[in-house]
Amino acid sequence: MTSPPEAAVRTVDLHKTYSSSRGDVSAVQGIDLEVTRGEFFGLLGPNGAGKSTTIGMLTTLVVPTSGEAYVCGLDVATQPVGVKRRIGMVSQNNTLDNDLTAFENLEFRGRYFGMGARDARRRADELLEMFNLTDRRKGNPFELSGGQAKRLMICRALVHHPEVLFLDEPTAGLDPQTRVNLWSVLRELQAQGQTTLLTTHYMEEAEALCERVAVIDHGKVLASDTVEALKSSAGADTVITVTYDGVPPAQSIDTLRARHDVSKVEVSDGQVRVFAHEPDGLLGELVTVGATAGVGITDATQLRPSLETVFLTLTGREYRE
Question: DSSP label at 25?
Fold first, then answer.
């Protein structure tokens, strides 16, 4: 079986199981994905959901246990060299060579992929200018800020004009201003037609960048569609969370559960989380519940439909850090 020509990335029932002294651990459990050429696609989910393992298999760093995976029409299991020639990868960790300057990191990568010396130097300068790193040309990576180092890693991944760019949690650990600036760079690449597959647990990052996303947890795809379609889906409720300094009365909670506009109510250690299609008035009602029971409120939040509320509705819990 081969991947259709329009698919830059495709997986079919992809699995990865790790063996340990405590038994087998299933990191990826039957993921089906398809990313079209020129698309900016996001794999979303909490830490430990299986995102990085999936990326590892697609970039030939992790051997699949079963299933199929194709990148640019090539089987990652049987044609790994061909896949590596067609992809660029930016990992979570800084993998720049600290013994080389910023320019040399890019020049040597170009030579590694078969460029002549002149073309490799030209491409290095082109990317340094594109990513606003020209003034750091002669600097070593350890002299760069976190944002500058991440931009240089993306430059290095792009040296050989990859057909697919993989970004594994590219803004993890960056401050908000640096993160937004990096988003701007990634949008420019998208406008140029670069196919990109991003993993992230920042929902606002996916909303800012991705055309389509797949929400995964425990190695399974929970939902996959365009960002707007997921946000407007029936599962994208408003989530109202109220934390009491005591135990709210069970009868009042049961009354909330019976409402036609409430999908579900979760109660845990004095915290009540309500998933509602029509949230108007619910927060006030939860305040009244507490006042009637003689318990105060220590915290209250209301999240309107977003990718975050889609995820919370699907999983029924907060993100794991």
Answer: E
Cα–Cα distance, 196 to 41 (Å, whole number): 6
Side-chain-facing half-sphere of 230: CA atoms under 13 Å: 26
Q: What is the DSSP string of 125-151?
A: HHHHHHTT-GGGTTS-GGGS-HHHHHH
Instruction: Please state, as a whole number, how many other Cβ atoms lie within 10 Å of the Cβ of residue 112.
Output: 11
Q: What is the DSSP letter of 270?
A: T
| Strand ranges across the sheet with 164-168 | 87-90, 164-168, 195-200, 40-44, 212-217, 220-226
First-to-last alpha carbon distance for the chain, in angstroms, is: 39
Backbone torsions φ then ψ of 198, nearest 5 degrees: -110, 135
Token match 């790994």: residue? 80
Q: How far is CA 134 from the centre of its chain?
A: 29
The tokens for 204 are 């606002």
Residues facing residue 303 across a β-bridge: 239
Phi, psi (rounded to 5 degrees) for 40 = -105, 110
Contact at 8 Å (CB) between 129 and 152?
no
3-class state of residue 23 by DSSP: strand
Looking at residue 65, the DSSP 8-state letter turns out to be S
Residues 302, 306, 312, CA angle at the centre, nearest 5°? 70
Question: Residue 99 half-sphere exposure, CB side, CA atoms within 13 Å?
Answer: 1
Checking if the pLDDT of 321 tops 60, the result is no
Neighbouring C-beta atoms of residue 180, cutoff 10 Å: 14
The identity of residue 72, as a single letter, is C
What does the block give as tokens for 185? 């760079």
Partnered with residue 195 across adjacent β-strands are 164
b/e map of 51-72 (b: 16 or more CB within 10 Å)?
bbbbbbbbbbebebbebbbbbb
Confidence of residue 249 (pLDDT cuts 50, 70, 90): confident
pTM: 0.78
